[in-house]
Amino acid sequence: MKSLPKEEGGKKKDSQLILRLGKEERDEFVELCKELDTTAAREIRHFIRSFVKKNKKG
Question: 18: helix, coil or strand?
Answer without folding.
Answer: coil
